[in-house]
Design goal:
Layout: H1 2-11, H2 29-53, H3 60-88, H4 96-122, H5 129-140, H6 147-157, H7 160-168, H8 170-176
Amino acid sequence: MLPRLITALLATALLTGACGSDEDDPLTDAQARWVDAFCTGLLPGKKAGQELTAQDPADPAAVKTAYLALVTGNAKALAEAEKKLEELGPPSEELKDVHERLTKYVGESARSYAAAEAPVRALEPNDRFWDGAEKVLADTSQVSSPEDLRATFDALEKSPKYSAAMGRSGPCTELQAGSQNQ
């Protein structure tokens, strides 16, 4: 799950423009908040993933602490993103399916990470911790369509309006920061 998450987060840096049907209308405040909610839900995972990969594998206690930060941070941020996306609704009629897929993905991801917290916390911080934690994440995953996150990026990159909005969004810019270097 972690490698897929990092891959998806790094894909943010690839957003470019193409075409879309609501492009002539200016971005509304609600659409900008939708873009922010999308990126805000992913940002803690990127930060926690970077912290986790920076840990020395010879220090299992530090790895466990960082792994738990990843699990709890993702559970909270993704649950908040799901709630915010549900409140905002689709940013446009053209992106209704994208919105539904994304909302489902972040909700399932939030529940997956929440379900993993107690089993990961119960693991001993030893040289087998990483494998055990990855197994817990796989076993607790409720994500039915992990490709939905990639589909969301693909749909947004086809829209100069939303691609540009992501470039102007604070959370999206922060999410993209450093991705080009990795």
